[in-house]
Amino acid sequence: IYKSQAETGEIKGHYLNATAGTCEEMIKRAVFARELGVPIVMHDYITGGFTANTSLSQYCRDNGLLLHIHRAMHAVIDRQKNHGMHFRVLAKALRMSGGDHIHSGTVVGKLEGEREMTLGFVDLLRDDYIEKDRSRGIFFTQDWVSMPGVLPVASGGIHVWHMPALTEIFGDDSVLQFGGGTL
Question: Which residue range or ranges hold the Ribulose bisphosphate carboxylase large subunit C-terminal domain (predicted)?
Fold first, then answer.
């Protein structure tokens, strides 16, 4: 990263993946990232597990690192109509477990999803108070009180020409990620 920055004069970034088979190994990876000066680590919270995610989230908050959440394997759980659960349940569990931002999919691009449902779980991730709105999949009013929010990251087959639609959909309280990790 630093070599590339020195050569180009441009700021570069990388989410160092801390996902591992044990919490101890994840923390070692986060410590290593911190020693390298990498400001963001990534965790696959579904494959890694919620308890492991909570441990990593607490370490990151205590040590000035941002925790980017990847949702590998979510489709196995949330895309089946006859079994599984909706992503909004996984989003709530993540918010309670901890993280700074998560791939939320998009309403445009290759990770296209149903607009109202996507916005419903995006609201659950980042807003402090969410009114019941069945059209968005919000079945009861939710008051998160002081629970920190999670920023949605719109990514997956998007490009700069999608920006007007993405900012209209997600507003300016989101992250737009283009081109395999380009922020």
Answer: 2-182
